[in-house]
Amino acid sequence: MTSTLHHKVPSGLDQKEAEIYRRLDPARLPKHIAIIMDGNGRWAKRRHMPRVAGHRAGVAAVRSTVETAARIHIPALTLYAFSEENWKKRPASEVDFLMRLLSRYLKAEVPTLNKNNIRLEYIGRQHELPGDVQERMGWAREATGQNSGMVLTLALNYSARSELVDAFRSMLEAAAQNGGLGHLHIDEEAVSRNLYTRNLPDPDLVVRTSGEMRLSNFLLWQLAYAEIYVTPTLWPDFRGVHLLEGIAEYQKRERRYGGLNHADGHPAAAKV
Ligand code: FPP
């Protein structure tokens, strides 16, 4: 049963956001939303601007999305900012620009994160990032470390396959230090506990902008049962209202986790 349509709208939402929020069931909001931010380059190209102008415009989309997610009390939001592949396959000048943009974002945004009670975290091979960026990241994490609201995780130099490799390596190292391979016990729980996301629930919803239908090496293990929402909106045009549209679509879906739907009368039966 869905709750009434008269639930209270959280403060800070604009009129369009409030309109969509009123149609949502606040008891069934996703606990963790992951977003693949895509389309910055195309946004810039359409305007005959350099690609980096799209990245710069993407920061406003990050700001709006993060604030709206926090205002409606989503417990966790994870943004795919830079993949490991981004480093290898993009010109150094674009990578440098993205690094500087990230540094500036962290410095400028900490007060807003604190105002919204948001705690910042990171996933990815951080030790491979430039030293000054790592320092700024550490500072921003510390500066928001006391916040108890939404956890905002930035995936930086992230690859899901590398994350799994790192998880297997850490399980092996732990076993080697605790009596050898005979003590190695691997099951799903053990893999989950060794991922970068060990402190987060698996995402219920993954959003991808700019119309592409790919996971692009993002949270492959954790997205096993996530609902996928793809919007044609390019990332720099994405705002809180689009996030709410994605959540509305999510609430229309029936999540089965491999089971049958209730109409079939066998909710517990396994379906392969
Ligand atoms: C994808 O667009 C976007 C990126 C690789 C970078 C994401 C960066 C931002 C949104 C801005 C800064 C982020 C933070 C957290 C401060 P693309 O360049 O692949 O677009 P295209 O597919 O249209 O070329």
Features:
272 residues; alpha/beta; Undecaprenyl pyrophosphate synthetase; six-stranded parallel beta sheet; 43% helix; 12% strand; disordered C terminus; binds farnesyl diphosphate
What does this structure look like?
This protein is an alpha/beta fold and 272 residues long. The chain has a domain at 26-159 and 205-253: Decaprenyl diphosphate synthase-like (Undecaprenyl pyrophosphate synthetase, 3-Layer(aba) Sandwich). It has nine helices and six strands; from the N terminus they run αβααβααβαβααββα. A six-stranded parallel beta sheet has the order 3-4-2-1-5-6, sandwiched between helices. α5 (92-115) runs parallel beside α6 (131-143). It is globular and about 60 Å long. It binds farnesyl diphosphate.
Summarize the structure.
43% of the residues lie in helices and 12% in strands. By secondary structure, it is an alpha/beta fold.
The termini sit apart by: 28 Å
Helix content: 40-55%
The CATH class of the domain at 26-159 and 205-253 is identified as Alpha Beta
Number of helices: 9
Spell the H/E element sequence: HEHHEHHEHEHHEEH
Give the strand order, joined by hyphens, for the main sheet: 3-4-2-1-5-6
Mean pLDDT: 93
Biggest sheet layout: 6 strands, parallel
**Which ligands are bound?**
farnesyl diphosphate
CATH superfamily of the domain at 26-159 and 205-253: Decaprenyl diphosphate synthase-like
Quaternary structure: single chain
Label the overall shape: globular
DSSP strand (E) fraction?
5-15%
